[in-house]
Amino acid sequence: MSTATERREQLKEVFREASGCVRCPLSETRTTVVFGAGNADADLMFVGEAPGANEDRTGLPFVGQAGRLLEQLLGEIGLVREEVFIANVLKCRPPGNRDPRPSEIETCRGYLHRQLELIQPRVICTLGNFSTKLLRGDPTGISRVHGQPEVRVIGPRAVRLFPIYHPSAALYTRSMLDTLRADFARLPELLALEPPPQPAAVEPIPAVAPEPLVEEPADLLEEAAEDAARNGETEAPVASEDQLGLF
Ligand code: URA
Questions:
Q1: Which residue among 14, 70, 83, 211 is buried most deeply as judged by most CB within 10 Å?
Q2: Residue of the CA atom closest to atom 7 of ligand 1
Q3: Which has the higher per-residue pLDDT, 116 or 224?
Q4: How far is the CA of 34 from the centre of ligand 1 (A)?
């Protein structure tokens, strides 16, 4: 069992690895890898589809109109984005915002799974079809499963999955927004539930007691940039600290 501090350090490693990823052709057309951002020890994690133009430019997820709606809905349940972790199925923007291709989803899947394993959220909120189908491991569309929480084993952990509509779908359709808002309103009750029973542990018991968590959860991306600067890397893995600077 690792501490939150250890998990955050490992997540930073994954961030550095993803930042230079050339595993698929999207690396040739992207500007910036959009790893995800937020609290590395979040109870609630959102998984969207793929970066759009704003995200590709800034390196941060959900910074356009859909992101503003996401922030507003979070505010309505008393949360701010600094408290949650926001990621996507794909870490690079598909050209022209086309749908992610199965081969891209497959190639990128490892990053998302490592994020889930290290952040260990209690609730994963999938936004729209792509993340819902991927994490449920089932082709059923979002309109049939939204608002229905379920426990799924993803990698080594059991987690509460809560599929909801993608905020971009709700931007221009009133009824969709009402549905999204009603689903969102159930999040506090899901977060308050006991964590689901975990499958039998596979990790060995550590030889020494893990150090207590003394640090506050900090901005993962900011720390990674600071590390890069300390190590004399003039080319930080993301473009600049300004571009990290949501929180
Ligand atoms: N839509 C997504 O699915 N993800 C983003 O980061 C932005 C818009």
A1: 70
A2: 62
A3: 116
A4: 10
